[in-house]
Each structure stands twice: as C-alpha cells, then as structure tokens.
Amino acid sequence: MRGSEMRRRAPEYRRQSRRRLPGWIWWLVGIFLVVGLMLFVLHHNQKEQFRPPVINKVSESEEVSPKNVNFTEELLSSTSFARQLADQMTLAKAYVILAKEHGNLQLAWELSSQIRNSQRLLSQGAVSGRAITQEEAHPIITRLARLIYKAQDSHYDISTTMVTLKSHALALEERAKAAVVQTAEFGQLAAESLPKNMHCLTMKLTEEWLQNPKLMSRSEEHRNSTRLVDNNLYHFCIFSDNVLATSVVVNSTVSNANHPQQLVFHVVTDRINFGAMSTWFLINDFKGCTVEVHCIDEFSWFNATASSLVRRLSDMETKGSSGGLKTQEREIKFHNPKFVSLLNHLRFYIPQILPNLEKVVFLDDDVVVQKDLTQLFSIELHGNVIGAVETCLESFHRYHKYLNFSQPIISSKIDPYTCGWAFGMNIFDLIAWRKANATSLYHYWQEQNADQLLWRTGTLPAGLLTFYGLMEPLDRRWHLLGLGYDVDIDDRLIESAAVVHYNGNMKPWLKLAIHRYKSIWERHVNFSHPHIRECMFH
C-alpha cells in the first residue's frame, strides 16, 4: 500500500514546465514599439524646427544696446579713453592760456577747437552711459597730442606752465578776496541806506513841521508832562533816525499791551530827522500812549570832554580834513555807520538821558513786538544792570568770538568762554547802573580800544565788556534774533517770541528783505496814511 501511495503523490512535487506565449503576441508588441519610436522622433524634430532663436536674439540685443557703464568710474580709471581725454584737455587748457599770453592766437584757437571736440565726446558718453571706444577717441587724442607737442616746441615747457598757472591762481585768489570785501561793503551800504519812499516820507513830515508852528508848541507841551518821569508807568527808549521803523516799534508795542495808556516812549533822533520824527508822533495816535522825541544835540553833556567816543570821532574828523588818514582800511572803519552813529552809542548813556527813571526797556528800531512787554518790569535782575537773552550755543557767540584775547588787558580780566548775549530788547535797572557806574566802565574800554585792537566796530563788544558780570539772562522767548539774515527760522519760534529782531543787512523796509518775514513788520504800517500813500509805499 505504502508503495502505491508514494507513486500516486509523486507528481505533486514535480517542477511545473513554462508556458510559451503565442508568436502573434510577440509580433504585436514589436509593432507597437516601432510605431512609438517613430512618433517620438517625429515630435522631437518638430520642436526643434519651431523653437524661437533665443540665443540669437540675446546676442542681437547685446549688439544693439551695449551694457551701461558708470561714467564717473570711467573718468577715474587709468586705462579708459575717457580718462586720457580728460587729462589731455586739462593740459591743453593750460597751453591755451600760455599761447594767448605769448600772442600765438592760432595755436590757442586750434587747442580750443580740440578741447571742444573732447568735451562733446565726453558729454555724449556720459549721456548715453557707454564707454568711449578707441575708434572714437583716437582721432581727437592724436590731434591733441600733436598740438601739445607743438606747444612744447614753442618753449611752453612744464616749468613755464607751473609758474604761469601759479600766478593765475594767486590772481584769482586776490580777486575772490576783493569780491568778498566788496560784497560785504555793498551789503552794509544797502542796509544803512534809506529807500526813496522813506526819504520821501521824511521830507513831507519835515515840511509839515516847518510850516506848522502849532506842532512845535505841542511838542514843548509834551515835554512838561509828568508822565515822562512817573516810575509807576512803563518806560521804553528808542534811538533811531528812521521814522517809519520807529513807528513800527511803537505801534507793535502798544498793539500787544494790555494797558497801552500806561506806556511811555522816549525817542532820541538826530538833528536832520527831529522835525519829521516829532511831526509823525504828534499827528498820529498810538492808543493813548505817550511819545517824547528828543534831538541828540540837546544833550550838552554829550561832548568831547565827557565822552571818549565823541572826542575820538572829532579827532578823526580833524585828521581826515587835514589829510592825516593814511590807510583806506582805517578810514572805512571809522566811517562805518555802525561805528560813527552816535545814536547807536546812546544806549550807554541812558541814566543821563533819563535821570529820574528807575527801570527802562531798550528797543532797537529793527524789532517788532508780539507780546505784552510790561511783564519785563517785574523780572528780578538780582542786582544786575541789564537783562538780556543769551545767544551762545556750544562754542558759538561766546566772548572769544567778539574780542581779541591776544591782548593781555582782555585775557587777564575776561573769561573767553563767557556766554554772549544780544542788544535789541533789554531791560535796564538804572539804580543798579548808577551804583555800578557802568557808563564809566564803557568810557574805560573805549579808551583802551583807541587803536581798534580789542575789537573792531559796533556796540555789542563794548556792551559785553561794560556789562561783564552785570547781566541777568532772560528766557529765550523774550527775544528772537536772525530775521535779517536767517531764512530758515522755525515758525513756532517766531510765533512764541515776544520780540522778533531783524538784525542783519536784510531789513524789512528794504527790497532785499527776506520775503517770508516781511509781513510781520508790514502789518504795523498804516498804508492808508496820506503821507505813506503819497510816497508810494506798497
């Protein structure tokens, strides 16, 4: 049994034989492969045929639009044709000057022509933003080189070139210095001159003063007013020969005062403008305030004996008439209106001008008041003579900027880093002034400066020395400076300032005034006044 079972089960353990695919199936697979290959080849050929020529387009665009270059770098590059052209132009310009000086106008003309060609080529390269090629630069460089060699054959060598150019440089430097001095002089003349319309106003007012005796009588009556010496009122002093400018100061002050009837103005002018100034303040009302006008000639004590300044000016006038002035520079200094105008120096004699007063506010004629100034009289000066706004900022406007500290008399007594301050709006304690004898200090420093070695001109350096250690700083908002020269003052500073000051040459009544600030001044001018209309004020 077991043997027969084994024989029957044996086929279960045999390896099955492989079945072969029919031949027609192999044929079918082969046909599909061939057709697929043909389709692939055909599709690839079509893509190559219709592909756009990208590479050719790029190359063509590169040929049409060359790569932009930085022309500044081209000019600085030692290997560029632009640099070579520029260097040759510089040398050629020097030889043009030499050729003209030696009368060789033909060579100068030829060099100038090639220089213009070089400039034209360089400008074209700069505009197009491309590098200058050798084909463009070679003809000009060659012609310039020949002309330069020709100039050198004419003995225009490097040493001659250097000497000539140095002399030209020195001459240009001298001309530049002369132009700076001339500009300053013209600016000063423009600032100190009186416009035609303001001169017209002065003439009309003077004519009215001379033709109307009642005005003189009223002027004498005003001088007897008790208000002029009443220390319970608020007193202001102005020293000016400009009628309209003084009027603006008075008008702006009373317009912003809470009680204008309590204001008293003491105006001092010169003999020429006394009649016009008196007439103006007699025929116009300024909200009930009192205005007193004096002539500087009335102060008999202001003479050569008492004042070193008057004595010095008298001596200079005498020497000038006898030919004693030797240098133009010295003559200019003593004829500078800022120096010779005695009205500017009256600020050092306020106690003598107003002997009965205790406190007074000094105002320049180129300021405009925007706030009530009566509060100034309640400021405590702590025993000092003057209250002023300081002008120093870091190292600017300190004493060493105004005074000559190489002089021992200055360096031994004054700290060079003391903060400077401004005239133009100041409160004076006349009791402290008399106690400190500040006017005598002013005379002392004027005597020491007889040779103009301590400071040049002006009243500020003398004031810094006279009131050294006697100045009380005020809040900066009381006095804003710069409207006569600075065009960029912040509007917020102008609005918050109690007084704005047109210090500088661009006065608001001149044509060269800064237009931005002119309306601040003009709003206090009565353009409807008959005299002002007749003099064509606009």
End-to-end Cα distance, whole Å, is 149 Å
Using only C-alpha atoms, the radius of gyration works out to: 45 Å
| Strand percent estimate | 5-15%
Task: Give the number of helices.
Answer: 24
Look at the structure and give the mean pLDDT: 83
Shape, principal axes of CA atoms: elongated
Total number of beta strands: 9
CATH architecture call of the largest domain: Alpha-Beta Complex
Strand order of the largest sheet: 3-2-1-4-7-6-8
Poorly predicted segments: 1-15, 47-66, 323-339
CATH topology of the largest domain: Spore Coat Polysaccharide Biosynthesis Protein SpsA, Chain A
The CATH homologous superfamily of the largest domain: Spore Coat Polysaccharide Biosynthesis Protein SpsA, Chain A
Main β-sheet description: 7 strands, mixed
Into which percent range does the helicity of residues fall? 40-55%
CATH class call of the largest domain: Alpha Beta
Helix and strand content put the structural class at alpha/beta
Question: What does this protein look like?
Answer:
With 538 residues, the protein is of the alpha/beta class. It has 2 domains: 71-156; 196-308 and 335-536, Spore Coat Polysaccharide Biosynthesis Protein SpsA, Chain A. 53% of the residues lie in helices and 8% in strands. It is built from 24 helices and 9 strands. Strands 3-2-1-4-7-6-8 form a 7-stranded mixed β-sheet. It has a two-stranded antiparallel sheet with strand order 5-9. Helix 12 links the parallel strand 2 and strand 3.
